[in-house]
Amino acid sequence: MFAYLIGVCLLPKLHIGRFIGIAIVTILSFALMFAPLLLGSLYDNYKGIPPPLDITDREVNPIFLQILPYIGSNSYLYSLLSQLTQSIHRIFPFARGLFEDKVANVWCAMHTLHKLNTYSIPLLQRVSLLATIIAILPACMTISTSPRKELIPWALASSAWGFFLCSFQVHEKSVLLPLLPMTMMLGGDGGLGVEMRAWVGWANMLAVWTLFPLLKRDELRIPYFVLSLLWAYLMGLPPTSLDLYLGKQARKGGIRMSTSTVHLGFYATMVGWHLAEAFIETPNGKPDLWVVLNVMIGAAGFGICYVWCTWQLLLRSGILQEWFDFRTEMGKEGKKDEKKRASTPTPHGSKTKSLRSGKTPKKSRWRGGEESGRREYLDFGGGCAGWF
């Protein structure tokens, strides 16, 4: 949303008034959000109510207060800074590690193959920050250069998938964030089309499947199966129906063969995983085998969702179409040049043919005679070659 708002302030022309208005609303919104916390801390300080232990303890406090050792713990400023920094400290929980439980993102999947806990927390913070920026950059750049309302759900979905896959300390339920804009696409133009239903339905089924270990821990297996099968039935998805991929709808040009292969492969894998998890005991020393497989498969599927959302955003924004049109036009010009060169005899060829026939060679059709024409021809060809 920040990239979209920046785009509408800069394109198609600079809107100073709109920018100032958005800045004022943003500042007021943050002030309203933090007002209860800050006013509450001031009230407690006024009444002499001691703050919680984790706020007064210097070792637990974030570094923001450690660099201000001369502020008295009884002052109003200390109360404000303590509450503010503790809020920020909890919004960015760097002290809790790269991930806390088995979550289907990049880091947990990589940890299965290579133990990431051997690296320091500051290094993991920087790497995750860099990976997250790279993942959300295509969506932010696209929506800022093409700030259109119909592209907002696609940009939100792409950036949310990037955050879920690459950010620091992600919870399993955070997968609901990218699912929200993706599911909203069902209400847009072509939302109930075959391709859209297939992708959105598959993403939701895959996401709730990755949540099964968490739901099982809370004894929610029956609601999981009932609601998942109800969703599949209403959307016409496997395992309740294969018509979306193999029936008449698919044959009418709705879904590509590659998409059908990937989706059906994941559906079969999810069903097989449930059967194995229910009836096959894990080997000795590998109690989390099925959960780890769930993470690996889910992370791969979510990566595909991220790529699809980002690709669709680029296509619908027109950026790729403009580039392809430009390349196509330049290719046509190049082919015309090749045909022109093939059909037009060079001055040397014309002279040779005339000498063989015993006729006097005609003056070159190029301006300035034979040598000048050859020079213009070579210059034009070199200029075209620079585009390819």
UniProtKB/TrEMBL annotation:
EC assignment: 2.4.1.-
Pfam family of the protein (one): Alg6_Alg8
Biological pathway: Protein modification; protein glycosylation
Localization per record: Endoplasmic reticulum membrane
UniProt entry keywords in alphabetical sequence: Endoplasmic reticulum, Glycosyltransferase, Membrane, Transferase, Transmembrane, Transmembrane helix
One GO CC annotation: endoplasmic reticulum membrane
Biased composition (Basic residues): 350-366
Transmembrane spans: 20-43, 123-145, 192-212, 224-246, 258-276, 288-309
InterPro entries: Glyco_trans_ALG6/ALG8
Keyword Transmembrane part of the UniProt annotation: yes
Region (Disordered) location: 334-382
Recorded topology in the membrane: Multi-pass membrane protein
Basic and acidic residues composition-biased segments: 367-378
Main enzyme class: transferase
GO function terms (MF aspect): dolichyl pyrophosphate Man9GlcNAc2 alpha-1,3-glucosyltransferase activity
Family named by the database record: Belongs to the ALG6/ALG8 glucosyltransferase family.
Name this polypeptide is given: Alpha-1,3-glucosyltransferase
Organism, scientific name: Letharia columbiana
